[in-house]
Specification:
Elements lengths: L5 E4 L9 H15 L5 H5 L6 H11 L6 H19 L9 H12 L3 E5 L5 H7 L8 E3 L12 H10 L6 E5 L2 H9 L3 E4 L11 E2 L11
Parallel strand pairs: 1-2, 1-4, 2-3, 4-5, 5-6
Helix pairs in contact: 1-4
């Protein structure tokens, strides 16, 4: 008996790894502003949206900016980030990820992306996955970032699969919290394995196949 009918994958840190691009882009913005930014602060930004990330950077430095300047700097960060993403190709999709996605598809399950990134479709195209997934829910669709479950609930709705028949694969604590809040089981990979809320913990993405 099939346990799940839909699998919702986070993008960054699960399907591909763009953390280094985010870090480098935020580091450039921090340098322009003359504020502190390091890996510890960068890790706090994983799984959340651009505006919320910038708010964390500013608060950690006791800085305030006008709404206009916030938009200007976050737009600038996105320009830097997207320029780096152009370097991505289908070769950046690891063999374990490719084989896992194909295996899930072969089992007859529906696949979706649930990501806070507004660049999701651009990244999928760079990876050659623009038509692979049955549904995509991203930062362009949501009002509330993770740990709010909105991004995953939209993905579930677009798949036509009830939340309790979906499993979410996430690498960030905020994403695990969002999955649970949405009534979905979760499989943690990367730093998310330390979350007590995760139902499963994966060493590599293909471990997911053990639980479907």
């Amino acid at each position: 008996m099939v346990k799940y009918k839909g699998v919702i994958f986070d993008l960054d840190g699960v399907i591909c790894h763009t953390d280094r691009y985010h870090y480098e882009a935020w580091a450039q913005i921090a340098e322009e502003l003359g504020v502190h930014f390091d890996e510890a602060l960068g890790n706090r930004l994983r799984g959340i949206g651009r505006q919320q990330s910038f708010e964390i950077i500013l608060k950690s430095n006791d800085r305030t900016l006008s709404p206009e300047d916030r938009i200007r700097y976050t737009d600038r960060k996105n320009e830097i980030y997207r320029a780096m993403l152009v370097k991505m190709t289908p070769d950046d999709l690891g063999n374990d990820v490719r084989k896992t996605l194909d295996a899930v598809r072969e089992r007859g399950m529906k696949l979706a992306i649930g990501s806070s990134s507004k660049n999701t479709k651009f990244i999928l195209k760079r990876l050659g996955l623009e038509i692979f997934f049955d549904a995509v829910s991203d930062g362009n669709d949501i009002r509330f970032p993770k740990p709010d479950p909105e991004v995953f609930l939209i993905a579930s709705e677009r798949l036509g699969v009830s939340p309790n028949a979906c499993i979410v694969v996430e690498d960030a604590q905020a994403g695990i919290e969002a999955a649970v809040a949405g009534g979905m089981d979760s499989a943690a990979i990367g730093d998310a394995i330390y979350s007590q809320l995760a139902k499963y913990r994966l060493t590599r993405l293909s471990d997911l196949l053990l639980y479907l």
